[in-house]
Amino acid sequence: MLSILLLLLLLLQSTLSFQVHRHHTYQRTRCDRTFTALNVHHICHKTLNIQGCIDFYSLFNYTVSSTFRASSAQCAWLRCNNTSSSNPIIELIEIPKPFHNKVPKPPAPPLTETPLIPSYNHVAFLSPLPLGTYLPSLSSVSSSRFSKELKILQPPTQKQIDREIWEMAYVQGPDSTVVELLYKCATLPDGVGVE
């Protein structure tokens, strides 16, 4: 279902030009009609080890809000503990044990050896601190809570996107998923740095 929605979104983007406006409203440039964007409810992650994922996402202040079953799969919804947050839910679906040997575990991408390929699926979290400070702290918490150091796939680098300077790094999550950490360093004044 998600694949179909993504395909439809890609088709829409290729035929229409959208402009993002502040209050989560998109406006078509080919006609006068406007429509409100849909909010993201949850992001789904299939896993071989649901508890390992629960532990990992707790590093980002997510905790279990609901557990349920879908067929024979154990599932959990994780919500961010930040009460002012409108972050989407992370839905975890544990692949049942009889199917574990039928699911190939992909290796983590070698981001430290080759540049990041933008097509890697990943989830991104905003860091409250510069990544040079936040990553060692996060790794220390991971070591003390779970006896596992955080695996850094790509150390912090800076990139300018429009007028904003972002610091970004990539770490390995459960089941070799890629997790991006972002920190907004600065916003350039109007007319500066945008080509």
From TrEMBL:
Keywords: Signal. Residues 1-17 form the signal peptide. It comes from the Eukaryota. This is Uncharacterized protein.
